[in-house]
Amino acid sequence: MTDASVPPPRPGAVPLRTPDLESLRLLVLVADLGSLGRAAERLRISQPSASRRLSTLERGLGLVLVDRTRRGSRLTLAGQEVAGHARRIMDGLDDLLADADRLRDRREAELRVAASLTVAEYLLPAWISELRGRRPGLYIGLQVSNSEHVPELVDAGEADIGFVEGPRLSRVMSTRQVAEDRLVVVVDPGHPWARRAEPLSARELSRAPLVLRERGSGTRQTLDRALHLAGCERVRPLVELGSTAAVRGAVIAGTGPSVLSELAVRGDIAEGRLIGVDVEGVDLTRDLRAVWPSGRRLQGPAAELVTVARRAVTGARSTRAAD
C-alpha cells in the first residue's frame, strides 16, 4: 500500500542521491565567482577535482547545473535554482556552527552542580574554591537535594554533574567515586550511651529510637543497608528531619541518639558537645560518588571538578598517613 500524496517514480527514472555539503558549497562559489577555477582555488582543491565533483552532483540530481565555456562557467536555470537552495543550506549550516560555538562557550563558562547535603555542606565549598582558582570567570550554580533526587536533576538536564552519598541510585547513571565517608553514632553527653564502656551491637542500634534524616537521604540509605547486611531490621525513627544541621541540633539538645556523617560531627565530638559511640558488627562506611548521564563523556568544568575532588581526597589521605 502506498501513500497517495507521493507520486510513483517515473519508469526508468534514476534515483536521486543526497548531495554532500562540499559539492553544494562548490556550486554556490561557481555562482558567485563565475569561474570553476576560482571556485576550486577558494576551496583549495584542483580544478579537475572540482569538475569531477560538479559532475557527480549533476548525476546525483539528474540535472545539468553548469554550462562550461572558454569564457568561464555559468549556471543553467536549473543550476541557479539549485544554487539558491544550496545557499540557504549553507547559511543554515553557518548558523548551526555559530550556535554550537556559543553553546561551547556557555558550557565552558558555567557549571551547574547538584549535590546531596553532606557533600554540599562539608566538601563542595573547598572543591569549588579550587576550581574557581583555575577558572576565575566560571559561574557555578549549586542545587542541594538528597541523594535520591540528585540523579533526577542531572538526568533532566538541570545539572551538569551530581554528587551523592547513598549506596543506591534512583536511575542508571555513570558514576565515579570521589571520596569515602563514615557514619558515626552520636549522643549528647547526658545520654546513657555516653558512659557506655562496651560497643553497641548492630541489633541494639536497630532497636533504638533514633533522630534521623528523611528517607531518600544518603545517610538514611547507608544506615538501612548496613543494618540489613548485619541481619537487622530497619530502624524506627524517633524523629525524621530534613537536614543534617537539624538532626545534629536535635541530638545536642538531648532529643535522642543519631547516626551522622563523621564530616558533620567531627568538631562537635572534639569539643565535647557530642559523644561518639562505637558499634560492632555493622559497616557504616560509604562511598561519595559523582554521577552523570549514562553514555555521556564527562568533559569541561564538570570533569575538572571531579578531578579536583579526587585530588583533594588523595591529599587528605597523604596528610593523615604522614601524621
TrEMBL record:
Q: This protein's superkingdom?
A: Bacteria
By what name is this protein known?
Answer: LysR family transcriptional regulator
Record domain HTH lysR-type: where: 19-76
Question: What Pfam families has UniProt attached to this entry?
Answer: HTH_1, LysR_substrate
Kindly give the InterPro entries that the UniProt entry links to this protein: LysR_HTH_N, LysR_subst-bd, WH-like_DNA-bd_sf, WH_DNA-bd_sf
Q: Which UniProt keywords apply?
A: DNA-binding, Transcription, Transcription regulation
Tell me which positions the record assigns to the signal sequence.
none
Q: Which family does it belong to?
A: Belongs to the LysR transcriptional regulatory family.
